[in-house]
Amino acid sequence: MKPGVRIIGGRWRGRKLAVVDAEGLRPTPDRIRETLFNWLAADCRGAVVLDCFAGSGVLGFEALSRGARRLVALERSPAATARLRELALQLQTDAVEVHEGDALATIAGLADRFDLVFIDPPYAQGELRRRAFEALENADLLRPGARIYFEWPRGEDFELPSPGLDWLKCKQAGEVNYAVAEWRSSR
Asked: For a designed S-S bond to 161, which of 54, 115, 130, 183 qualifies (C-beta 3.0 to 4.6 A apart)?
């Protein structure tokens, strides 16, 4: 296990989540999460959340801690998937649904429509940001006004993958670019 990450706010504030040592897994740092959830403060309550590349699960669990209704977490690493399920048990929540496997293949089979989506794949696989969003758009899984979080490394260009998206907030911290866009539908 790697050093844990802590939940910053909400009902589980201060709880530490142990993180498995899996290739490409890099939990979003505290200061970025703090800014992100300040941006999303009004968007978490009652939201159905999708974490496309869940890893440590800290983004999704932070959203649940702040009032989200449900979390669907997608993760390809068996160890990280097992850890996500353990965390749901430790936090005594049945609001978490974990899918193990390829995120792009899994998205097409999801039945929910989402209010809040986290798309932050391993940096070495940056094309997954665009492809994951396109899979969500093609499957019509985004509610109007949905908030989409993107994260990518400093020095890499990233443009919104759909005319139905508009940037709401963008920021850089250290070697990380991160932003929230709003889904306004291109249909």
From this structure: 130
**Dihedral, CA of residue 62, residue 64, residue 66 and residue 68, to nearest 10:** 140
Closest-CA residue to 150 (of 119, 107, 104): 119
Q: Which domains does the chain have, with CATH numbers?
A: 2-183 (3.40.50.150)
pLDDT digits (tens, 9 = 90+) for 16-30: 988 887 776 777 888
Residues 6+ apart with CB under 8 A from 147: 40, 43, 115, 116, 117, 168, 180, 181, 182, 183
Measured CA angle at 124 (ends 44, 171), to 5 deg: 45
This prediction has a pTM of 0.94
Amino acid found at 44: C
